[in-house]
Task: inverse folding
């Protein structure tokens, strides 16, 4: 997607996303006509269609991919506009490194990622546009807010005193997940808000789950087990951190639906060494995404589920994605751990071996299901120095603050932007 100035008097066509059937329409004949104009920069129908294909490669269905493509491209235009205004650019070397890191996060090489996208009709330029916008935005945010986000020594001391450097908070959660497809988005959101009011007034969460939830965890009353708080998506972790045990979150948007989460229990895991110089055992935290194969599935049907599992594995960007997609996964999916590495099953140990943090394994096929493993964290069990602890806390505080500043900044740009549908 290359934003360009819209020529005066150019013929503007109806937005393809709002007109799903255009067999004889001008937009179908001229895909490079403007679909959206954002502060005078153009997004074409071709841009929208290619970005939609990009997201479909990573496992989203057609309608969700189309909606996400529109939102993402608008935001990327705004990010690039702000980078231009500040005189910031992304060098070819930075772009190549960004593509390589994006590929590694999905357990792929850059060449394999580019080839896979190309085979699905997504050109390298579309991937470059996606990566370039994020790299440019990172520079913008650091320039604007870097000094404000940098923690003071007192901030670090306070964090260390609170135990953020060597304590890990884990939470046991239950979910009530409702897809938009069943009732439509507006009615689903209204029902979720009503349920939150009833639950906070003493309603029965388990009964509500059995009636309304469509997640694989519904049969267990929504219980999805224990998870490290810092492995959850930020928007979910923030809401949960405000809860007392037994309370529920407000409705939280997830992929193609909404979820309500209840805090069942909470614990603090403190790293400790054994007597003498012996250190704590190596531990891992991982997520598992399960795609069940129905009993009696034919060979062709089994292949369809195999393709679905592969697309899911490619699209998982980290452990948080497994939580966010919980309503679409089979029972047993979720975050597991921390557990001693020595206690991992042979299957889990093999799948997790060599994975980078937040990378997903290839699907592991059994007679009844496909299992995809994502590495959340790995603690080698060796003690860290005080300097390491300070650096870790410094980085954590900086990234949290920078993320908050970035979110508010982007909302401000969107509010002030002039966006036209053509």
Result:
């Amino acid at each position: 997607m290359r934003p360009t100035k819209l020529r005066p008097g150019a013929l503007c066509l109806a937005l393809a996303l709002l007109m799903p059937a255009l067999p004889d329409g001008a937009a179908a004949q001229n895909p490079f006509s403007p679909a959206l104009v954002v502060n005078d920069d153009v997004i074409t129908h071709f841009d929208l269609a290619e970005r939609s294909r990009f997201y479909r490669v990573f496992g989203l269905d057609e309608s969700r991919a189309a909606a996400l493509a529109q939102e993402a491209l608008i935001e990327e235009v705004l990010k690039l506009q702000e980078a231009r205004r500040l005189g910031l650019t992304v060098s070819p070397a930075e772009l190549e490194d960004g593509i390589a890191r994006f590929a590694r996060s999905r357990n792929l090489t850059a060449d394999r990622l580019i080839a896979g996208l190309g085979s699905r009709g997504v050109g390298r330029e579309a991937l470059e546009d996606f990566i370039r916008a994020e790299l440019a935005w990172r520079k913008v945010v650091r320039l604007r807010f870097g000094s404000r986000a940098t923690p003071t020594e007192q901030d670090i001391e306070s964090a260390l005193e609170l135990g953020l450097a060597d304590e890990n908070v884990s939470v046991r959660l239950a979910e009530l997940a409702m897809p938009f497809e069943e009732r439509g988005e507006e009615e689903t959101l209204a029902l979720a808000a009503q349920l939150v009011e009833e639950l906070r007034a003493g309603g029965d969460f388990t009964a509500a789950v059995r009636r309304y939830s469509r997640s694989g965890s519904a049969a267990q009353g929504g219980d999805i087990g224990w998870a490290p708080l810092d492995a959850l998506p930020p928007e979910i972790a923030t809401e949960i951190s405000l809860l007392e045990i037994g309370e529920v979150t407000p409705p939280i948007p997830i992929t193609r639906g909404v979820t309500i989460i209840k805090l069942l229990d909470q614990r603090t895991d403190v790293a400790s060494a054994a007597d003498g110089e012996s250190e704590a055992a190596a531990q891992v935290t991982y997520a598992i995404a399960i795609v069940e194969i129905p009993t009696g599935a034919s060979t062709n049907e089994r292949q369809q589920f195999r393709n679905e599992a592969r697309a899911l594995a490619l699209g998982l960007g980290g452990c948080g994605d497994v939580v966010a997609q919980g309503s679409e996964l089979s029972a047993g999916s979720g975050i597991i751990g921390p557990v001693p590495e020595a206690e991992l099953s042979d299957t889990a140990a093999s799948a997790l071996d060599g994975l980078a943090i937040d990378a997903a394994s290839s699907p592991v096929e059994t007679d009844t299901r496909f299992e995809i493993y994502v590495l959340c964290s790995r603690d080698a069990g060796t003690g860290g120095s005080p300097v390491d602890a300070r650096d870790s806390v410094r980085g954590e505080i900086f990234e949290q603050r920078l993320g908050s500043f970035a979110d508010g900044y982007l909302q401000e740009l969107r509010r002030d932007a002039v966006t036209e549908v053509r």
The chain has 15 helices and eleven strands. Residues 2-27, 271-279 have pLDDT under 50 and may be disordered.
